[in-house]
């Protein structure tokens, strides 16, 4: 197929953003602006579905490759997908239109500019998952900081400027070392082409330092303990749509980076540093779960739960087991759906009550039953109840970890118990109990757009919980090939 489908996926949201930019910004045209943005992102989602249907699941080779010379003798614009990256592209194109629908209530000012930021963000995020050149990957990876910085800094809460700068500086400082590492790889190997580097391999004597440089960037972005402190601040201040994008997709870039680059390019170093990853992941799972139990702000609690969930992801990736890596990918997809839904659930009551404090609520089950049922579903999915997508990911990860290290698996299992504790504790305090706050009696249940968004997220959460085969079949061959390449490179070195 000659049609540049991946470039279309990357460029279409930017084209939509440019169209919005050049439209006259009258006060009354908010609905037009929104429809244009929604149409653009919906078309992009349909293209990504076509990509998935056209994708050959029986090969581990990269497909739909586009390779164009950008800077002669140095950088090629090279994009392609395999079984691992395609799911993240679909997640991105699925979440973005839902974010655009959700701005109904949450964004009151400069709606056009907000939608432009979201669309450009979508372009950069898809670019990250398609990139087959280290420089192109880095550019997309870093460029995503700019629209998210603006989303938090302009449309965020009272402490938005502090949170935006903290988010920007943390992630930028981590990534500077990755840039140095990419330049070093070009100096060592003479190329930044990912497929060529897989074939060539990188000399073992350089791998440790290069691995640490990439790790510095991915650890901040994941975020791993102890460089996770920017995430709760960013989530609390970000508008609902910003929180959704941040939790659902931005955090997944680092997980994807660990799989694609840390394992793929630096197998010797990955083997050496696996105990470090295990230690940090277990600390993240247990410590942030305990911190989540202490939170009084709903958004902060969900933010800390994200750190714990991503701890499971990093744990699974570095088991180098089929179940562990597949579980991590499914966990990232599931977390993308469930955390997005939880932040939207918080956004629903915040738009009505203008409070995120748990103590402001209680006894709302009789007033807004539809909301309470859907909130319960996502709460149970977040704690990994069988029948939800959250269970599949966590179960496979723990299977992989048990194969590799029994003690780590036992400690990680504590995170499952603590996860159940803080999520059920949150739900109990918000939804059940006595109706103390009289203002809650005026609460209105989900409107059509809110109901639509949450149903759209609930459907795949349940579907993949009962039938994960479409996800497993897509990633299986690519994961198997990655593990084989990892093991063979270890033997060679």
How many separate structural domains?
1
Q: Please give the radius of gyration in angstroms.
A: 22 Å
Secondary structure: number of strands = 2
Shape: globular
SSE ordering: HHEEHHHHHHHHHHHHHHHHH
Number of continuous helical runs: 19
Strand content: under 5%
Protein structure class? mainly alpha
N-to-C CA distance = 38 Å
- In helices, the fraction of residues equals over 70%
Q: In order across it, which strands form the biggest sheet? A: 1-2
Low-confidence stretches: none
Q: Describe the biggest sheet?
A: 2 strands, antiparallel
How would you summarize the topology of this molecule?
Elements: H1 5-21, H2 30-54, E1 63-71, E2 75-81, H3 83-106, H4 111-130, H5 134-143, H6 145-155, H7 160-189, H8 194-200, H9 204-221, H10 230-237, H11 240-265, H12 267-293, H13 298-317, H14 322-353, H15 369-382, H16 389-404, H17 406-431, H18 448-466, H19 469-492
Antiparallel strand pairs: 1-2
Helix pairs in contact: 1-2, 1-4, 2-3, 2-4, 3-4, 3-11, 3-14, 3-18, 3-19, 4-5, 4-6, 4-11, 5-7, 6-7, 7-9, 7-10, 9-11, 9-12, 10-13, 11-13, 11-14, 12-13, 12-17, 13-14, 13-16, 13-17, 14-15, 14-16, 14-18, 14-19, 15-17, 15-18, 16-17, 16-18
Task: Offer a few descriptive terms.
single chain, two-stranded antiparallel sheet, 2 strands, 3% strand
